[in-house]
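Lab meeting, item 3. Inverse folding demo.
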């Protein structure tokens, strides 16, 4: 990002824009065929249907300012965003490559052997070195016979992910390109939603493919054991109700455990013992 700003100029917008303002900025970026659109320090969340379309659609209908007409523009723009503790809507997460940054010490106490200033990043000689390093990755992949990495998958950009992911995996054999982000990562994504999904998959994995029913209190107890309780229910005065809403949203969904078992999360009709939820495993992995 620092090199991008040094070469192309300041970010398109600093801070989190209002949805109406963001729509206008995206319209302008599409009409002018901008090469990049960057939002710097956007705060705690990004939720925008316009941004979803701008990122994933091959073309974008941009509104002409001061008129009611629309112009169909090809989307040739790369989008970037930075933020601290940033939460993204689930549909936006599927469209993005997310880099979680973690520093073990206070930023003000870090020491560097060399400070990468914007002027240094903008030098042609510096940019040439970065380009040479990128070519080294590609050359290594070619020399190895263009092997395809089976883990190089990204639902929103399968062909691109297969090529770029395989290039990275060829250079770093133990690397898992585009691996699912875990709860250990800081920032980005919906923490509560991630925690519930992690809870379900972990509980299911412990069943080893054996279908079983659980009561809401069983989920709360397990969440407490796993350290996920506060992420799921927060400061709710009715933990069971909060959890129940989260579980109901997942009824009918199919998951896969780390051991490879597929299961459907179900909610059978209420029984005399109260509400229960069912982990129903398929016969084949």
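The presenter then showed the designed sequence:
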């Amino acid at each position: 990002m620092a090199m991008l700003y040094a070469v192309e100029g300041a970010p398109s917008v600093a801070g989190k824009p209002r949805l109406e303002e963001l729509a206008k900025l995206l319209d302008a970026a599409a009409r002018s065929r901008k090469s990049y659109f960057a939002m710097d320090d956007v705060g705690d969340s990004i939720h925008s249907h316009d941004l979803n379309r701008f990122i994933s659609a091959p073309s974008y209908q941009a509104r002409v300012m001061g008129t009611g007409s629309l112009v169909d523009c090809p989307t040739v723009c790369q989008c970037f965003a930075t933020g601290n503790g940033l939460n993204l809507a689930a549909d936006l997460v599927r469209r993005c490559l997310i880099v979680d940054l973690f520093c073990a010490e206070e930023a003000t106490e870090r020491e560097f052997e060399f400070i990468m200033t914007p002027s240094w990043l903008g030098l042609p000689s510096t940019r040439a070195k970065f380009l040479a390093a990128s070519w080294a990755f590609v050359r290594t992949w070619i020399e190895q016979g263009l092997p395809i990495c089976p883990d190089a998958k990204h639902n929103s950009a399968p062909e691109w992910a297969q090529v770029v992911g395989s290039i990275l995996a060829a250079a770093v054999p133990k690397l898992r390109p585009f691996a699912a982000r875990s709860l250990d990562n800081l920032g980005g994504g919906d923490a509560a939603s991630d925690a519930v999904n992690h809870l379900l998959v972990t509980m299911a994995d412990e069943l080893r493919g054996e279908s079983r029913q659980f009561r809401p209190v069983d989920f709360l107890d397990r969440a407490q054991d796993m350290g996920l309780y506060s992420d799921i229910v927060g400061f709710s005065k009715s933990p069971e109700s909060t959890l129940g809403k989260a579980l109901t949203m997942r009824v009918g969904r199919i998951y896969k455990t780390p051991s490879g078992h597929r299961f459907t999360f179900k909610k059978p009709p209420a029984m005399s013992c109260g509400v229960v939820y069912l982990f129903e495993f398929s016969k084949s992995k």
